[in-house]
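Hi there,

I know you've been waiting on this one. I reran it after we fixed the sequence typo, so this is the corrected version. Both the input and the resulting structure follow.
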Amino acid sequence: MAKPRRWAAISCSHCPFESKDAQRHLLQSLADAGDRYGTLTDFVMLGDLIEGAAGSVHPDEYEHTLFDEYEAAANYLEAIRAVLPDDCRLHWCLGNHDANLTVNDSRRTNKATRRLIHWDQSPWQDIFGRWQQYPYRKPTPNDTEGALLIGQCCFTHGWQAGVHSDQNESLQIAWALGGWSHLLFVRGHTHATRDVTQAMKNPTTPLPWYYCNAGTCGPLNPPYAHRLWTMWQPGLMWGECQDHHRQSRFPGKCWDAHLQLLGGGD
């Protein structure tokens, strides 16, 4: 049997507004990962690495530039890469804030210069280029490029932000991927952490899918989200899974995962 894949995942750093406290806890946890969990084979940034504020529809609210955002994001990724094994696979599932800088929306980026301001055209393109990037696109039966699948573990940024969005999206994506049992869906987007939870059809009937949420590594008290602060937490998801190319080869649930909280925030 092939060696298991060992992964870690975070979400929503929103550089240049990343939480320095959460980052310190994250880097220390990753540096200690080998002794606690074995050598990591994969690290997943679940999206909203970049705030995108310099491309906002309200540009006067921010004084920094898009280059400032890219520099902060590149430094963030490099700090993570420095504490990971050299052969660890690096994944970046784009989030809505990341994608806002590339979408066809003249209120955010000008059509004539949109390609030129992409992070892959920045001075830090080599750093961003080390990370496999997955588009911000909700998986459908005919298009699953927006999801990273490692064994039975599926990683996306997330689209909905309601109370039940973790479960709702896990069910939607499960069917898009073929409806195989025992899938675990790892997401962010809502900034609210959630440890591994089994989906339920009703209060007494479990379904054969699971979901979790890595929370946020960004600011915990931004003024635009004052109604949500009590729900937000910085988190790091850890997991281990068997890796097969076909879901039909799994005899049952072949993964384990858990949430680690990353202390306070700035």
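Quick highlight: The chain has six helices and eleven strands.

Best,
R. S.
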